[in-house]
Design a protein that fits this description.
The chain is 59% helix and 0% strand. The protein is an all-alpha fold. The chain is globular and about 35 Å long. The protein has a domain of 36 residues.
Length: 73
């Protein structure tokens, strides 16, 4: 469900300047450049995904926990 949502998500519709402006300036560490843009846009995408999953009655935590973590050394 989350994969299908993200595959069809209109990332280009996100106003990056607006997304960046919404990031609290007190949030440590203060990111800049591409790191700030990626983080700000990610917040929008996550919020939209969370709303989509909530509407379907699926806790977003299941999306995160089902992905697992991988560490390549």
């Amino acid at each position: 469900m989350a994969t299908a949502f993200l595959a069809s998500y209109d990332y280009a519709a996100i106003d990056t300047d607006e997304a960046i402006a919404a990031v609290p300036s007190t949030e440590p560490p203060r990111l800049t450049g591409d790191d700030l843009e990626i983080s700000a846009v990610g917040r929008i995408v996550w919020s939209d995904l969370d709303a989509h999953m909530d509407a379907a009655g699926v806790p977003t935590e299941l999306v995160v926990s089902s992905q697992g973590w991988r560490c390549d050394e």
